[in-house]
Amino acid sequence: MARDLPVEPGSGASLNEMPESPSAKTTGTARAVPPTTAVIPLSSAARWRAFWVCVSVAAITILDMTKVNVALPSIGEVLDASSTQLQLIVSGFVLTFGLVLVPMGRLGDQRSRRTLFIVGLSLYTVTSVMCALAPTANVLLVGRLLQGVAAGIQMPQVLGMAQELFQGRERARAFGLFGATIGVATAFGPTLGGLLIALGGPTDGWRLIFWMNVPLCLAAIALALWLLPDTRARSRRRVQLDPVGLLLFGASVVSLMWPFLFTTGAPTDNPARWWLLVAFVLFVSALIAWERHYAARGRSPLIPLKLFRIASYRNGTLLQTAYFTAAPAMFLMTTLFLQIGLGLEPVYAGMVSIGFALASAVTSWVGGNLVSSHGRVVVVWGLIGMLACVGGLMLAALYVPSAWTPYIMAAIMTVGGAGGGLVIAPNQTLTLADIPVKQGGVAGSVGQLGQRIGAAVGTAVALSLFYASIYRESGTHDELVVYHDAYAFGMLSVALFLALAFIVAIVDLTARRKRAESPTATDSPVP
Questions:
Q1: What pLDDT, in 10s, does the model give residues 47-96?
Q2: CA 47 – CA 328 distance, rounded (Å)
Q3: Cα 11 to Cα 24: distance, rounded to the nearest angstrom
């Protein structure tokens, strides 16, 4: 059984009370020494077993986010759900997930990641049963909101644990495997969802999507109890969660995400929802002011703003936010076009992304090994591959005969998967490279929050362009032409967000090379 761990010999401090690294105070243009890290005293085999438990739970969560999209038409028909309810079944999960991420990452940094991991998994199991048995759309919606809370509890502990388990090249390898697993889960989600609907039938097939989580989560709980080390700090200090910061953070996230979550592209969308973005600016300004004040008093703020002074973390977080604003929308747009526009069954529409999953699994592993020696350039080439994929998908939808479109798209998706695998894992390694271990949970949580907000914004923008085009052209053009145009407009937004990620990558690569070449730079050599 896992046990409370001793600290490193001679350190005299618990794992979560290690002295802060000088690099955590750097501005990102000069870091004198590597950040403070800690090694959990386990054998290599034990560390990797613990790591795979964490990664398997992350895969379950990501699978659940993508496979539900394919089930929405069945859910709407069986439960007589409105379009707003269907949208909230997906976006409500993302909202509560995002709200809980950072506070739970902060709590994991101060106390036991293992305990929070098991609590989140247990709640995820219960809410999966609730969703599977839901008699009405409202019950299903409540279940999905609570499921998002459970995901927000467990996911920050995954990256935080990886930070504590590994160092150096071994950490890069771990993030490579993590990226490969997440890439496979993201791309296989629609295929798995379609297969479960086909097996269970149009009436109850969607329930299998949630029932599937139950045995997987129970197995993960047993493995977590057996294999995960306990990193709890034996400290008499009270847990500091910054209650005012929590309230301001929650208000900021809701006011930012709400208008996008309720954007459908229909003429009935209420334009007044955009005024919430004004509230977002006010809330986030108040949050920044409060966090600075709170830190100046010697307290531990919810979000350590000094993390953003570290160039590698700041640029990596911006890049992954832009990337995840694009990638989920690309899968959703392609699935909708194939199902609604071309009339493919859900299982076959989902199979188009299998090539992406397999290719990204391979290149995530390769990228995780290359990033230590080649650095940001690996991510740049990955983004070039993703941009080529988006362009190819748009051309295939517009010019390839309908009978051949799914096959051509599947081949293009394989190219995209090769690029995507070179983005996620290497960028994760570069982003957290200079972050002290004791702040790994909250740092990883902010990055995941950026991913979730990006996914919500990206899918809302793409969906609004997709459906707005359908509303505008229906009745005036041939049906297939309408869906060709809708897909093209939706994918344009995907291309723009990927281009933004590419710009951030180029800026970061240029800055790294300038620091490496400067004779007066105090940085360590930057790849």
A1: 889 889 988 988 898 888 778 877 888 898 899 888 778 878 887 888 88
A2: 31
A3: 19
- Tokens encoding 371: 């990033």
Q: Say what the pLDDT of residue 522 is.
A: 44
- The candidate with the shortest Cα–Cα distance to 107, out of 295, 305, 239, is 239
Contact assessment for residue 197 and residue 74, using Cβ atoms and an 8 Å cutoff: yes
- Sign for the pseudo-dihedral over CA of 171, 173, 175, 178: negative
Does residue 188 have a pLDDT over 70?
A: yes
What CA–CA distances, in Å, run from 472 to 222, 403, 464, 467?
53, 26, 12, 8
The answer to whether residue 446 scores a pLDDT higher than 70 is: yes
CA–CA separation, 111 and 233 (whole Å): 6
Statement: residue 18 has pLDDT above 80? no
Q: Classify residue 513 as exposed, middle or buried by CB count within 10 Å of its CB (0-12, 13-18, 19+).
A: middle
Angle among Cα 344, 69, 186 to the nearest 5 degrees reads 95
What is the rounded (10 degree) CA torsion for 412, 414, 419, 423? 130
> For 105-119, how does the pLDDT look when each residue is reduced to its tens digit (9 = 90+)?
878 777 778 888 899
Residues 125 and 123: their CA atoms lie apart, in Å, by: 5
- Model pLDDT, residue 366: 87
371: nearest Cα among 435, 420, 433: 433
Using CA atoms, how far apart are residues 63 and 315, in angstroms rounded to an integer? 27
Instruction: Judge contact between 398 and 488, C-beta under 8 A.
Output: yes
| Residue 76: burial class (beta carbons within 10 Å; 0-12, 13-18, 19+) | middle
- Spatial CA neighbour of 355 closest among 393, 311, 381: 393
CA distance 506 to 112: 38
How far is residue 112's CA from residue 40's CA, in Å, rounded to a whole number?
13
Question: Which residues are CB-contacts of 56 (< 8 A; sequence separation ≥ 6)?
Answer: 181, 216, 220, 223
- The mean pLDDT of 362-381, rounded to a whole number, is 87
Q: How many CB atoms lie within 10 A of CB 43?
A: 8
Q: What is the pLDDT of residue 517?
A: 78
